[in-house]
Specification:
The structure holds 2 protein chains of 2 kinds. Helix content of chain A is 16%, strand content 34%. By secondary structure, chain A is an alpha+beta fold. Among the domains of chain A are: 94 residues, Phosphorylase Kinase, domain 1 (2-Layer Sandwich), CATH 3.30.200; 173 residues, Transferase(Phosphotransferase) domain 1 (Transferase(Phosphotransferase), domain 1), CATH 1.10.510.10; 145 residues, YVTN repeat-like/Quinoprotein amine dehydrogenase (Methylamine Dehydrogenase, Chain H). In chain A, the strands form 11 sheets. Chain A has a 6-stranded antiparallel beta sheet with strand order 1-2-3-4-6-5, with helices on one face. A 4-stranded antiparallel beta sheet of chain A has the order 12-43-42-41, with no helix packed on it. By secondary structure, chain B is α+β, with helices and mostly antiparallel strands. Chain B has one domain: 4-Layer Sandwich (Phosphatase 2c, domain 1). In chain B, α4 runs antiparallel to α5 and α9 packs antiparallel against α10. In chain B, 48% of the residues are buried. The chains are: A alpha+beta, B alpha+beta. Chains A and B meet through α1, α2, β28 and β32 of A and α4, α5, α6 and β8 of B.
Chain lengths: 621, 301
């Protein structure tokens, strides 16, 4: 182990401290940027004692142990210095000096008061105004045009991207980092260097041409206007996300210019940076000072949804219904379990308990199983509503029953997971947990899985023995869904977990904005879950990558369900949402008179959902 | 004597041409049974076996590939768990010091991961791990990225790393080395996606799969470890194929062998070691234009 430490644990070389003077001339003030091979500092030039002349000192630390590598690095550094010394343009920083101290080399450059474009994009919460981006783009065309017309050979910048564009305090752009810029000799192929996401296809083949810089400028403008970082997207995929689809404020003319710069074939792009500048100038003239138009939203049906029927209980409905043989069963805070005709909502019978019912009833072999806050598990005939047997625990029951292998499994606030024989109504075992169990147990391959309010998560075998345990930082109120490969559940610690069912190791974690008590649901390779940050999330099950998120107006405590190609989910904002599950696009929403915290049930193209407005609604899916 | 010769010829492997003809037909039920039964030695507890093969190839002077294979069993509260780490890295030929990069990648990634699992492998540790497998892989790759930029700036390498724990494989992947699942019935399923220019152009429909085979810039990558300031590796978790093999290899292998070649080399072998040797030999027989690295892993029991 210790050998390894010395080898790769060697700390990154230290930055220069403020106050240090380099070459008896440049007094370091602070770090203003960190690059791949060292830092960039703001320094004061002490040769001008009576005025404060600031310079940028770009450091390059040669850490390569291999002497050949070291030499190459020094050569690259000197090339950048020599190149800069020959350039004179208002958008290119002037070089004042360069020198080497031991393994560190320094370029002394004109100091730019300002920020780089990447930081500007990231620090702006909305889209940058088109006219702003347009004027920077025109200046960038100008400087590219200067480089491309350099004599005797054109200079290809090769690394145009927002972080290499500085915007100074008067709003003008400067091109920085000429580390890989090179003079262009036609016919000679170099190695591929550039920045993924901004570079054109031919640059990956080793061709550096003026046309490649035009493409990268197009990519830079695309990033600035759409706020989509191309380094996080597949290469050459700009046409898959047209600017105006993301930012409708951008003019079609501007989009057309960007598209042309981003053409796949170099011959189809602007012939020169000067041509592109010309086209941008035309856009500026045509659109004038752009007045932002409101972002258009697609037509969304919100008001027109009428329930097929609704039924009113005497108190809130926070649970989830079950359907069987044409009857819908739902518990209410008014302590009753109701049986309704699923087709028209007609009341059939109700079964009174002595406490509120938030659990989802389970149907098995002609009987309905459900827990109540009166501490009992009730088993009644699904047809008549007459009691079959009851089972007592020592705490309110808020965990829904799970029926598997001849047993019913459920948790209770008495800090036990109970396993009860379906035929006899007798306890087979109970497993003591650290706190109340409100989640519904999940059963697969002879193991029972559930979390509890202490944040502990248990895998218990059918004999009631602990197989393994996991601990989340806060309570696990949501139930688990899973496969042989993974168990998925969310926690009040704001995480969606994927655990290996065999041993409890964490395969991945996905950060939710806030605590969650919403049980995930899954279909194909996607996991869906709500959180109290008001979002419904869609996450890829293999890689834990977010696919989309949808914002409701309040906490999402109920669970989403999938039916055909739609996702249905309630929110505390009082709505039931219907989204396209692949994209998260809103199809419709239905507004109830209270928070919707239960989970919808979809059966035969009808959605059933309870609300704290005391109603259960039936809607066309 | 006669008998001896007959015995000898009977045991001789069929010629290459004969194999080609024979293998265009699907395997018979009997053959499949033989393969399946052959590959399922009974063990009470699941365990990993692995073997690897490497060759500089026929046309290169330097080996820029690096490879690592570690198989172990971890004793824990939930019983003994197979633990394995398998990595192939292919230093980029177009860059200087490719072997420095692939070497640094393997050392850094393996070092990072093993340090994380050290307490679980060698101490009694009751607490569950704070990070998930995918987070550990992500952090290991980021560390390798920094190490390469420090040790050999400007160079790059592919990296395909598989961490096996229990029956789950968590893969981190950058570049165009590949991980495959190979099933006893002859199915070959690539589980990684190449980050290569040619693959991307194919995905975009700019070139056809046929054109891709002879595309002049086949080994140009758009994503490589050591390159770029934002590195976005593919990281995912999948179940170990049972029965079947996990194979990780560099393009020196997959670039010259067909799927049938892969299956044949493995099925004809009496052991995993033989299978790896067969694969390397087959790639060299096909010209060996590049460095060859392969790891084969099986989860038995």
């Amino acid at each position: 182990m210790s050998d390894d430490q010395g080898d790769q644990g060697s700390p990154p070389p230290r930055q220069l401290q403020a106050g240090i003077t380099l070459a008896k001339r440049y007094s370091i003030q602070e770090v203003i940027g960190i690059g791949g091979m060292g830092s960039v500092y703001r320094a004061r030039d002490m040769h001008f004692p009576n005025v404060t002349k600031l310079v940028a000192v770009k450091e390059m630390i040669n850490t390569a142990p291999d002497p050949l590598v070291r030499e190459t690095i020094v050569q690259n550094f000197e090339r950048e210095a020599n190149l800069l010394a020959t350039l004179h343009h208002p958008s290119i920083p002037r070089i004042y000096d360069y020198f080497t101290v031991e393994s560190r080399s320094y370029l002394v450059l004109e100091f730019i008061h300002g920020k780089d474009l990447e930081a500007i994009i990231n620090e702006t919460n909305s889209f940058l105004p088109e006219h702003q981006v347009l004027s920077w783009a025109i200046e960038l065309c100008d400087v590219l045009s200067y480089l491309h017309q350099h004599k005797p050979d054109p200079i290809i910048f090769r690394d145009m991207k927002p972080s290499n564009v500085m915007v100074n305090h008067s709003g003008d752009v400067m091109l920085v980092d000429f580390g890989i810029a090179k003079t262009f000799q036609s016919g000679i192929r170099g190695t591929m260097i550039g920045t993924e996401g901004y570079s054109p296809p031919e640059q990956y083949r080793g061709e550096a041409t003026p046309s490649a810089d035009i493409y990268a400028l197009g990519a830079t403008i695309h990033h600035a206007l759409s706020r989509r970082d191309p380094r996080l997207e597949p290469p050459f995929s700009f046409s898959e996300r047209p600017i105006r689809r993301i930012n409708a404020n951008v003019s079609p003319e501007m989009e057309a210019v960007v598209n042309m710069a981003l053409e796949y074939n170099p011959e189809s792009r602007f012939r020169s940076a000067a041509d592109m500048k010309q086209a941008l100038t035309v856009v500026a003239r045509k659109t004038g000072v752009l007045v932002g138009t409101k972002v258009q939203t697609g037509p969304v049906n919100t008001g027109g949804i009428k329930p097929l029927w609704s039924f009113k209980c005497e108190d809130e409905i926070r649970g989830t219904p079950t359907i069987s043989q044409g009857l819908l069963y739902i518990g209410s805070y008014d302590s009753n379990l109701y049986a309704l005709n699923a087709a028209d909502g007609k009341f059939q019978w109700k079964y009174p308990t002595d406490g509120g019912i938030v659990t989802r009833p389970a149907f098995f072999d002609g009987n309905i199983y459900f827990g109540s806050e009166d501490k009992r598990l009730h088993v009644i005939s699904a047809r008549t509503g007459k009691v079959i047997w009851t089972y007592y625990t020592d705490g309110p029951i808020r965990s829904s029953p799970r029926i598997a292998e001849g047993h019913v499994f459920f948790g209770s606030d008495d800090n036990y997971i109970h396993a009860v024989n379906l035929n006899t109504g007798r306890m087979v075992w109970r497993f003591e947990t650290a706190d109340a169990v409100r989640a519904t147990p999940f059963v697969i391959h002879d193991l029972v899985y559930t979390g509890c309010e202490s944040g502990d998560y248990y895998a218990v075998d059918f004999r009631g023995d602990l197989k393994w345990r996991f601990h989340a930082k806060r309570s696990i109120t949501a139930s688990t869904v899973g496969t042989e490969q993974a168990l998925y559940f969310s926690s009040v610690d704001g995480t969606l977990y994927a655990l290996d069912p065999r041993n409890g190791w964490v395969l991945w974690r996905f950060r939710l904005g806030k605590p969650s008590i919403s049980t995930p649901c899954m279909v194909e390779d996607l996991i869906f879950v709500g959180a109290s940050d008001s979002f419904i999330y869609a996450v890829e099950s293999r890689s834990a990558k977010e696919v989309w998120r949808f914002r409701t107006e309040h906490q999402v405590n109920g669970s989403p369900v999938i039916y055909k190609d739609s996702l249905y989910c309630g929110s505390v904002d009082g709505n039931l949402y219907c989204l396209e599950y692949r994209t998260g696009r809103l199809r419709w929403k239905f507004t109830t008179g209270g928070a919707v915290t239960g989970t919808p049930l979809v059966y035969d193209d009808i959605v059933y959902i309870g609300s704290t407005d005391h109603h259960i609604y039936a809607l066309l899916a | 004597m006669d008998k001896f010769f007959r015995w000898l010829s009977g045991n001789k492997k069929p010629s290459v041409a004969a194999q080609d003809v024979a293998n265009t037909a699907p395997l018979s039920e009997q053959q499949i049974q033989a393969i399946v039964s052959n590959q399922n030695p009974r063990f009470d507890l699941p365990q990993l076996i692995a073997s690897c093969g490497q060759s500089v190839g026929k046309q290169r002077e330097l080996n820029e590939d690096s490879l690592l294979a570690i198989s172990a069993t971890m004793a824990g509260n939930a019983g003994n768990q197979p633990f394995g780490l398998y990595i192939v890295a292919d230093g980029m030929g177009g860059h200087q010091f490719g072997e420095v990069a692939s070497n640094a990648a393997i050392r850094t990634v393996a070092g990072y991961i093993l340090r994380k699992f050290h307490p679980y492998l060698f101490h009694i540790k009751a607490d569950s791990m704070d990070e998930s497998f995918q987070e550990i892989m992500q952090a290991a790759v980021s560390e390798a990225q920094r190490a390469i930029q420090r040790e050999a700036p400007g160079s790059g390498t592919t990296l395909t790393a598989a961490l096996v724990l229990g029956q789950q494989i968590t893969v981190a992947h950058v570049g165009d080395s590949r991980a495959y699942f190979i099933y006893p019935d002859g199915r070959v399923e690539p589980i990684t996606r190449d980050h290569s220019l040619v693959k991307r152009l194919e995905e975009l429909g700019h070139i056809t799969p046929d054109e891709a085979v002879n595309y002049p810039h086949r080994n140009v990558l758009y994503r490589a470890l050591g390159q770029g300031e934002i590195l976005d590796p593919d990281i995912f978790t999948v179940g170990f194929p049972q029965p079947g093999y996990l194979m990780i290899c560099s393009d020196g292998l997959w670039g010259v062998l067909t799927e049938q070649d892969l299956v044949r080399s493995i099925n004809e072998a009496s052991s995993l070691q033989r299978a790896c040797q067969n694969l390397v030999n087959a790639a060299n027989a096909a010209g060996g234009p590049d460095n060859i690295s392969v790891v084969l892993v099986q989860l038995i029991g």
